[in-house]
Specification:
This protein is of the alpha/beta class and about 325 residues long. The chain has helices at about 30-40, 65-75, 105-115, 130-145, 160-170, 190-200, 200-215, 220, 225-235, 260-270, 315-325, and strands at about 15, 20, 60, 90-95, 120, 150-155, 175-185, 245-250, 290.
Length: about 325
């Protein structure tokens, strides 16, 4: 059943005893292009973007305003971290294909090291499946536990999914985890991954790219689809008693390296993304959330020209960690 348009009259006036014909609304260019895309590929992510907002999942808390204040202080050199920050080991996890990009997440780690923190990178295979990387993360956490310390876990994109999966699969790790920061992670799924895997032709291409070009596991893309994420979250919900901060963002910049994918999702589904992830899908249930309208998926981890992004990856990460150490879990 088609819903009545908000601008449609409730009834049509009669003229000379005959009903006047309803005016036809001409299709715009966007409608025509969107219709063509859907006719070719089908509406694979329709109704999926932001599905967690409609599901019976733990609530989130918006701390964006406090984050902005904290970031502004970090930018002028203020120490925004609590004294306890130096008690922990900071473990970072790269996102999909991250190991192939020079400088990826280095500025994030250096921002923390500049504050005197013990920062270590978990060397996951960034083209491996979530289950494979979760096991690598588990071992890294247990290694730090053997030193008598807790960890703060920081993951970008799929790295955040891999971190939350490790904890969800191994809840015994909770006592060793002080806090978690997930930056632009498609916790609920990603529209581009879903669409590419739904069409047989593009699925074949993506799987071949992962296997033969990156020497990886094709499941690394499957693990980001809405179908796979929904089932995994149902079977292995992330614990709500760990202080967790989720960063979600979007970008309209046509200078962005991921402007194409951002335009695709906005055109096809009417949803803004950071280029790859919708901020709606980045909100981990039970977490404290930060949402930014002017940050793409690349500039959060790779410094760019000032005119392309005013967010500094190092200060961004330090401020998110400060939030994670400051705010308790939403559900306790």
């Amino acid at each position: 059943m088609t819903a009545r348009r908000a601008d449609a009259p409730l009834s049509r006036p009669a003229s000379d005893g005959f009903d006047a014909p309803a005016p036809r609304k001409s299709l715009g260019v966007i409608d025509i292009v969107r219709g063509g895309i859907n006719a070719i590929f089908g509406r694979d992510s329709t109704g999926q973007i932001g599905w967690m907002e409609k599901a019976n999942l733990p609530p989130t808390r918006d701390i964006t305003s406090d984050f902005r204040d904290t970031y502004a202080q970090a930018q002028i050199g203020a120490n925004v971290l609590p004294p306890e920050a130096k008690d922990y080991v900071y473990l970072t996890v790269d996102g999909l294909t991250g190991e192939n990009w020079p400088g990826y997440m280095e500025a994030n780690r250096e921002g923390l090291r500049d504050r005197g923190l013990d920062v270590r990178e978990i060397k996951v295979d960034t083209e491996a499946s979530t289950l494979t990387n979760a096991e690598t993360i588990r071992k890294a956490i247990e290694s730090v536990k053997a030193e008598g310390k807790q960890v703060v876990l920081i993951g970008h994109s799929k790295g955040g999914n891999d971190i939350t999966a490790a904890i969800a699969l191994h809840p015994e790790l909770k006592d060793s985890v002080r806090a978690v920061v997930a930056m632009q992670s498609p916790y609920g799924g990603a529209p581009l991954a879903t669409d590419l895997r739904s069409d047989p032709i593009t699925k074949l291409g993506v799987d071949a790219l992962a296997k033969y070009f990156f020497n990886g596991d094709p499941n690394c893309v499957r693990d980001l689809t809405y179908e796979w994420r929904q089932q995994f979250i149902k079977d292995h919900p992330y614990p709500t008693d760990i202080p967790t901060v989720s960063l979600g963002s979007s970008s309209d910049s046509q200078l962005s390296l991921v402007a194409g994918p951002a335009d695709y999702t906005k055109l096809r589904y009417g949803e803004k993304t950071d280029g790859l992830v919708s901020p709606k899908d980045a909100k981990i249930p039970g977490s404290n959330t930060v949402t930014l309208p002017d940050l793409d998926h690349v500039n959060s981890t790779i410094p760019n020209l000032p005119q392309l992004s005013h967010w500094d990856p190092g200060d961004l990460t330090v401020s998110l960690v400060a939030m994670a150490l400051k705010y308790p879990p939403v559900v306790q």
